[in-house]
Amino acid sequence: MLSKLYPINLDLAGRRCVVVGGGAVAERKVRSLLQSEGEVTVIAPRLSEGLMELAREGRLDWYEISFCRGMLKGLCPALVFCATDDTEANELAAEEAREIGALVNAAAEPELTDFTVPASIRRGDLLVTVSTGGASPALARALREELEQEFPPAFGDWLERLYLLRHELREQVPGFEERQRFWRQALSRSVLDLVRAGQLARAEAEIRDAIDNAGTEP
C-alpha cells in the first residue's frame, strides 16, 4: 500500500505516454490517456479488440512486439504504464522508465509503482477523484459510484457558467479576499441543490443577484 501520495492533476496534452501491454487493463489506461489528450504508444505483441480499433483509427502508436530493454529511451515518455501479465517485462519496463526519468504505474505490482490512478468522474472540466492509496480499489469504485449520483452531468454545464460569472464578479469586486468571501457564501447548499436538480437558470439567477448586491453590501 502506498502512503503519503501527493495529489496532482497533470496536463498530458502532447506528452508521450507508453503503455506496456495490450489487454483489458491496458485498454482502460489508454482510453483515459486519450481522453486527457496524451500521445499514446502501446508496446504489445497483441491488442484487445478495443485497442486494435483505436490503432486502426490512428489514435495510438502500436509497437507489435513484446517489451525489451532499450525501447523506452527513444520514446522519451513522461509516464509509463506496466500492464502486462509478465512480471519480468513489467520489471524491465519500470527499471528503464526510471533510468530515463519517467514515472511508473504498475497497478498489479505496487512495489514498482510511482503513482496511482484514482477512480474518477468527469463532468466537463469538473474532475472529481477518489484514491485509497491502493488499499482498496473496490472502495474507491464504490465511492466513485456515489459521487456520480452526487454530481450529475449538469455540473459540467454549471462550471462553464461559473467561469463567466467569475469574470463579472471581478469587475464588481476588485479585492481578491472579498471575492473569495463572496464565493464561499454564494455557492450555498441551496444553489448546489438547484444545479443537482438541473435548474441551472435559477442557480445562475441567484448568483447574479448576489453579484449585483456585492458592491453595495458593507
Number of helices: 8
CATH superfamily of the largest domain: NAD(P)-binding Rossmann-like Domain
Distance between the termini: 51 Å
Helix content: 40-55%
Strand content: 5-15%
Shape: elongated
Instruction: Give the quaternary arrangement of the chains.
Output: single chain
- Briefly note the structural class of the backbone: alpha/beta
Output mean pLDDT.
92
Q: What's the structural domain tally?
A: 3
Order of adjacent strands in the largest pleated sheet: 3-2-1-4-5
Low-confidence stretches: none
Report the count of strand segments: 7
Major beta sheet, specifics?
Answer: 5 strands, parallel
Radius of gyration, in angstroms, nearest whole number: 22 Å
Please identify, by name, the CATH architecture of the largest domain.
3-Layer(aba) Sandwich
CATH topology of the largest domain: Rossmann fold
Order of helices and strands: EHEHEEHEEEHHHHH
